[in-house]
Amino acid sequence: MLANKTLAIALCALISGCSVFDKSDKASAKAVAMPPPAVTQAWLDVYEPKVREDIKGTHFEFERRENLLVVTAPVQGSFNPDRPHMMLPSTLGPLSRMAKLLETDENIGVLILGHADSSGEVNANRELSQQRARAFTSIFRLSGLKQNRLVVKGLGSDMPRAANDSQQGRALNRRVEIMMTSKDTLNALIAKYNQPAPATAVAATQPALGKNAKVVAKAEKQTLRP
């Protein structure tokens, strides 16, 4: 119990130190173009097997996207249903392993994005997605990643990966994404996610997850919270 309280206090203290999107971020990132994938190919080849190993056996999902390594954590299984912004203990292990892996490489930048479904009030969803993203970010801060390498933003329901007209789709949209890239391309990545996705581009940001979708659908038989 004492350990849990100590961790909670530490997380609260560190969360406020995370870099977040603001107007200055957008302005500085505007002129930065994402380099071709070949530029970061070597980095991706080195870190992909390491990140896969860090999340092995968890409910986290892995994807390689051009210049990025992306780990997605569904809200279901990652956060307490009764306290929607509080991480479950099982989430700490894989996050800590990833943070430990990245902490010594000054050339890596990390962008953590919180996402919500479209149910409920827009601003409340955005705030909740921000809180969840910050909770993840705090683990990386505990491992020593500095503000210039770590950026966080809650996107609310702006970038769904499935339709919001079913429980399964809404569950897929409630997630936190950890995006790892070369530090030199971090500003370009920030600029990309400062542009809201078109409302019609339901699944444009990420393909549907065949096998994982079945798992989520089964879990959705329980009562889920946004």
Write a structural description.
- The structure is a single chain.
- With 226 residues, this protein is of the alpha/beta class.
- The chain has one domain: 60s Ribosomal Protein L30, Chain: A.
- Helices cover 42% and strands 19% of the residues.
- The protein contains eight helices and eight strands.
- Strands 1-7-6-8-3-2 form a six-stranded mixed sheet, with helices on both faces.
- Strand 6, helix 5 and strand 7 form a beta-alpha-beta unit.
- Helix 2 crosses helix 7.
- The N terminus and C terminus are likely disordered.
Secondary structure tally, helices: 8
- Morphology call: globular
Into how many domains do the coordinates divide? 1
Task: Tell me the strand percentage band.
Answer: 15-25%
Q: What value does the Rg take, in angstroms?
A: 17 Å
Instruction: Compute the number of strand runs.
Output: 8
Please give the CATH class. Alpha Beta
Poorly predicted runs: 1-17, 22-29, 198-226
Assign the CATH architecture.
2-Layer Sandwich
The CATH homologous superfamily is named OmpA-like domain
Task: Name the average pLDDT.
Answer: 78
Summarize the structure in short.
With 226 residues, this protein is α/β, with parallel strands linked by helices. The protein has one domain (2-219): 60s Ribosomal Protein L30, Chain: A, CATH 3.30.1330.60. The chain has eight helices and eight strands.
Layout of secondary structure:
Elements: H1 2-15, E1 19-20, H2 23-29, H3 41-54, E2 61-65, E3 68-74, E4 79-80, E5 83-87, H4 89-102, E6 108-115, H5 122-142, E7 150-154, H6 167-173, E8 175-182, H7 186-193, H8 210-219
Parallel strand pairs: 1-7, 6-7
Antiparallel strand pairs: 2-3, 3-8, 4-5, 6-8
Helix pairs in contact: 1-5, 2-7, 4-5
